[in-house]
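Revision sheet: structure tokens.
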Amino acid sequence: MAEREQPPSSGARVWAVGALCRAIADALDARFNPVSVRGEISGFSRAASGHCYFSLKDESGQLRCAMFRRAASLLDFSPRDGDQVEVRGRLAVYEPRGDLQLVVESLRRAGQGALFEQFMQRKARLEAEGLFDPARKRALPTLPRAIGLVTSLGAAALHDVVTALRRRVPHIPVVLAPAAVQGPGAPAELVRSLQGLYALEPKVDVILLVRGGGSIEDLWAFNDEALARAIVQSPVPVVSGVGHETDFTIADFCADLRAPTPTAAAELVAAPRELWLGALELIEERLRDAVATRVDLLSQRLDQATARLGRPSALAARQRLGLAHQAQRLHYAVLARTGRFAQAQQALAARGPLGLRATLTRHHERLDRAALRLQLLDPALVLQRGYAWLTDEEGRAVMHAADLAPDDHVTARLADGTVALKVMQ
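Predicted:
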């Protein structure tokens, strides 16, 4: 190839620089790659292109590293000088300078692997128990009367939260329950502080559980199972603001709400006082407008009623006119009725004697016909034809032979008298 020169007469091979660099890179790739390295970050920088450059070092050596934008975008934390990390990548030779470098494909904090595995196992177990169930999580109070705060007295998070609350809601009291947020005894202290807030009377309306960012080891106290169960038992909503936005802990999943930072946690429970004052001003304006509208409507109705009523004299004149009209109608009605009575009286007077005589004749005829019908029904006429009317001793008519018994006495009435009879058989 053009890069390799012919060997001199002595027989030693002479390499072109670029060819030797590629040959070394091939040898490294075949011998070592892929490779994992643990060390301390030094000289970390991020270029405008998104690529990251740094060195890994320990007591006995140093290795230049390059992490390109695609791999850097997958980081879940911001690397800093002094961080102990584990990287995985490929050894290569940067030919323009002939430098040995490690092209980093993944980077994580040292020791994170075992802790992360423990974190995932605990998270899966608690989630299966229902500690992360969204259905049990509560909404934050709109206007808390008191706010509980659990954090370390020496933590920067305390200053950030207090500053945010003082700026936004200086009128709301804050109850601080201090606790260590890092170290072996931190989980127990956090649990005691939470339980102390639970027992307060009067109770706080919401609790902030906060601390600043750090490595997974720094935040490990917030992955404690006892702390998770204490958060779930809270009688009031709990807001977790632990670490940076990319940090997640078991406490975040158990809390009623997770905030990306301690300051954000404070802002979530404390709407600015100016916002509520503005809302009150808006309500006042709406009430004022509603009252003014109501007054205008009633005034308009009053004007309409006044217009309909007019002057009292005009109303009295209309009433007098109505009464006069009714009196005139009554007068003519009486005259008409009197005329009809007079006509009827005249007609009766004209028909008087003749009508009375005809009426008496009709009544006599009706009486004669009635007397004739009564005479025809007289039982005496039947007796004159040879019949007799039998009565018992009590004077009741005997209608059937079965009504009599031997030795009964009966009376037979004939046309010219009565006969006493005795029943023989």
